[in-house]
Specification:
Length: about 325
């Protein structure tokens, strides 16, 4: 196994994207239906979205991490935002909108899946924040930038990313479930600027129009240097030099899948920045993603370097 050391010997990670205040109902006795009420004693509030979960996992593992997003001024008094601040993640470069509330998602988790309702007007036109001079200055301090937002329209982001790549930065992307972005004419061209892309199986097939995850991954490899597809309880796969590499996940008692994919991203990117081989990056992602399902929200079970090392040895390098 590659030595699972810290990534503090490099310039670290900047996560750019959307922050949410998440309210999750879980341990439901049945799936919610229109016109009906479902009651549960299990509820949790936490920082949500790809930005928060990816950044919290990476920082917990020892990667120096910055988060750049736009929130409302109400975030300053919210426990969700304070969780991010207390974690040691740098929030220099964030914008506090005086007119709009921080994005919020209400989620109902049942039987390993979930449904969500979101209000996120504050996340409109995030490319303007990305292009701001003060933000570009923060981005240039990174070695790697992870994008956790819809990136629509793709053309609005291209030039800024290309300038940063010329400075030696690498990029990854988790666009989430955004069919409008998938189908936009410039999306494939934008993907060529990324070292990694992190769709789940459904997203990979929707992006490429392919019916199987293997064909979808290989098609993504025409655009992205190393596409990584998350397969939930079945682990993950990546395409390297035209060949598919698979790594199985670990088995856990799952409670809520919210944020598990973003936790995977944090584990994978920690490994990447620490110089691990691709197999160990996938394994670290699998472990972080699996742990994230053991409670409510993707940051419910943040691993440390020590706990990740033990799980890597136990499950992959006995």
């Amino acid at each position: 196994m590659t030595s699972p050391g810290s990534a503090r010997n490099n310039r670290g990670l900047v996560v750019f994207g959307e922050f949410f205040r998440d309210l999750v109902f879980y341990d439901l006795p049945s799936a919610p239906r229109m016109g009906e009420e479902v009651k549960t004693a299990s509820i949790a509030r936490f920082p949500g979205g790809g930005l928060a979960t990816t950044a919290l996992v990476a920082a917990s593992l020892g990667t120096p991490t910055k988060a750049i997003t736009r929130v409302g001024r109400d975030a300053l008094a919210s426990p969700e935002w304070q969780t991010l601040v207390r974690s040691g993640i740098s929030i220099r470069g964030c914008e506090f909108d005086p007119h709009l509330p921080t994005a919020i998602t209400v989620s109902a988790a049942f039987n390993g899946d979930r449904m969500m309702i979101t209000h996120d007007a504050v996340n409109a036109k995030l490319e303007r924040l990305f292009q701001r001079k003060s933000v570009q200055k923060q981005l240039r301090t990174a070695r790697h930038v992870h994008m956790a937002c819809a990136m629509s329209p793709p053309q609005a982001w291209m030039r800024s990313i290309q300038r940063l790549r010329k400075r030696g930065l690498t990029f990854s992307l988790d666009v989430g479930w955004n069919p409008d972005t998938f189908q936009s004419s410039g999306f494939a061209s934008l993907l060529r600027e990324f070292e990694f892309v992190f769709p789940n199986e459904m997203e990979a097939r929707a992006i490429t129009g392919e019916k199987t995850v293997e064909r979808a991954a290989k098609k993504l490899a025409r655009w992205v240097r190393v596409p990584v597809v998350k397969l939930g309880a079945d682990g993950s796969l990546a395409v390297r030099n035209g060949k598919i590499l698979r790594e199985l996940s670990i088995r856990v008692r799952s409670v809520d899948a919210t944020g598990a994919g973003d936790a995977f991203n944090g584990g994978f990117l920690h490994g990447y920045l620490a110089g691990w081989k691709l197999e160990d990056c996938l394994r670290a992602g699998n472990i972080c993603g699996a742990l994230a399902t053991t409670g409510a929200g993707g940051s419910c079970a943040l691993p440390t370097q020590k706990s990740l090392r033990k799980l890597m040895v136990k499950h992959y390098h006995p």
